[in-house]
Amino acid sequence: MTRELRNAMSHFATGVTIVTTRFEGHDWGMTCNSFSTVSLDPALVLWSIRKESLSQPAFTQSGGYTVSVLASAQQHLAMQFTQGTQAERFHNVPVEHHPASLRPRISGSVAWFDCQLEQVVTAGDHDILIGRVLDFGSHDGESLVYSQRHFGTFKPF
Ligand SMILES: Cc1cc2nc3c(=O)[nH]c(=O)nc-3n(C[C@H](O)[C@H](O)[C@H](O)COP(=O)(O)O)c2cc1C
Question: What's the pTM value of the predicted model, to 2 decimals?
């Protein structure tokens, strides 16, 4: 069931993000494609984290997170932020720390959203992290796309 479900789900094309936070004096980050908009007024977003993820305490206890939407040229970062220690993930990766939240964002991303954690909803083997957007920004550029376990770019008709 799980394998077939994952196969079927993989047909839903998404963007690719790296979610980051600042916890116990360190930067934390992981690749995420469950990011979604929830509400415009107030501005709320969500993503879900596997409960067994080593980063789960950092994201649920730090009070907030930043979502960096990756550019098509940042595919290597999408892979880099799926494994290894946090120090290895951030090694040689340019980031900017938000002056107020101190959370890092990935330089060169096409958009970013700095969020305060509003609610954690436990749902099966994941936690849904609902955040209120405190600050955001975007740049022109091509977004990275993920579909059927492949990275690519979006081509308009
Ligand atoms: C394209 C892509 C999207 C991903 N999206 C998510 C996600 O939304 N939630 C999640 O928990 N893991 C997601 N992962 C897996 C995590 O990046 C990976 O399990 C995590 O970085 C492991 O970190 P840990 O050392 O904290 O356990 C995704 C992986 C890839 C390649």
Answer: 0.97
